[in-house]
Amino acid sequence: MDSGKSIRNLAVSLHSLLGLKTHLTSNWVKSISDIIKTLPSEKSVDMQPTNSDTDDDDDGDGDDDSVSKIKDELTFLTNYINQLNIKRRQILHEFLDLKGNIRVFCRIRPITGGENFGHLRPVVASNSNEVVLKLMDNKTKSYNFDQVFHPGSSQDQVFTEVEPIIKSVIDGYNACIFAYGQTGTGKTFTMEGSADTPGIVPRAIEALFKQAVDCNHAFLISFSMLEIYMGNLKDLLVPKPTKVTDPMAPCLSIQADPKGEIVIGNLVAIEVNDFNQALRLYRLGCRLRTTASTNSNLTSSRSHCMIRVAITCFDAAERRRETNKLWLVDLGGSERVLKTKASGKRLDEGKAINLSLSALGDVISSLQRKRHHIPYRNSKLTQVLKDSLGDDSKTIMLVHVSPKEEDLCETICSLNFATRAKSVHLGNEDTTVSRQISFWCIVLLHYLL
Ligand SMILES: Nc1ncnc2c1ncn2[C@@H]1O[C@H](COP(=O)(O)OP(=O)(O)OP(=O)(O)O)[C@@H](O)[C@H]1O
After folding, report:
1. Taking CA atoms, which of 133, 139, 141, 273 is between 20 and 30 Å from 91?
2. DSSP state of 50
3. When comparing pLDDT for 85 and 366, which is higher?
């Protein structure tokens, strides 16, 4: 057989496959590179005798072996590419679904130990998109969301629905995932989780690192964590001073850079090389969060906790930005001050949380109505999230509700808030960028299907 020609052709095939490398793993590329390294150079191939008269039988067998090895590898790679294409198609579908929209999920907290079942008229999730509230006189009220997680839903199920947004982050979009809801309804459980059942934050960071490796570009990832407590920003990676002589942490400030990207002055951003480094920082930050016991929750978060993962990539022209960010936000719980009977500091904290949540509602409502003026400036929360809530960003809101009848008023408020958010259309269809995206989506679909 003409082994020289075969080897040359294989090398060409391998090189052309490398042209598709954008979505291939680094292992894939490494194995390709290793194969190519083992190929004889074109010159040496040309010089090899091609007829069977050669008296060096060992060399011939060696070539045959390496050709069949490469063929096997090619078959494997072709199958692998096919699998990737299926995945890519799925992602594309989700991308189109996500494009220009805020997605709203609802999670219903399960009844936890010690709660009275007796006179419950529970909130019911009738299917995966609808929440039905049972009201007086056999009346019901239903709400539709992109996804509804009933009380038995696992952290895994929640994350599976959230995960596609991580791909958008790798593609260069700013993204924001936030947990909203009445105090004690499970926001921290969803975002942080526990050691056995990790929540969205650890899972999202892990997925981000994995996808960054898989997409075969060099990324620089940095981690920051802050809380907004009583209207002030506090860096959660800077320990509180314990002695009077300890230096005070510098104040954090919110500015916009010339491109309109939000910059938080003095916020510590630590470069992390792997998931475990990021997780250690996250745990450190969680310990510094302001929590307190309230009538509704033994460890109530008294602030908005915000995790920012910034991703920079210098060598990927197809990304939308060089640096973009993923915000993971555990909002403070909305509460009816009369009901919680909070007083003193707890009352002030509750009021500050309610004020900023209402500012968030106003921003969302203005986005929904496509107003020219969006009142981002009315709270620190909306100022910080300004470039991750508007056009050209991806948002997931997880609204949390209680299953208890006594919380029905708060549940209705939360579901109304979430319903308003659901109809926000964040994309501006007329922008050139949007048109280009649509064009490339069509081209890609054509290519993939
Ligand atoms: N899906 C769930 N499965 C099991 N336990 C849950 C779930 N959701 C919430 N819980 C439990 O309910 C309690 C209150 O939850 P959590 O502290 O997460 O509420 P929260 O909304 O963050 O409250 P706050 O706004 O006051 O901080 C916790 O003990 C938590 O473990």
Report:
1. 273
2. -
3. 366
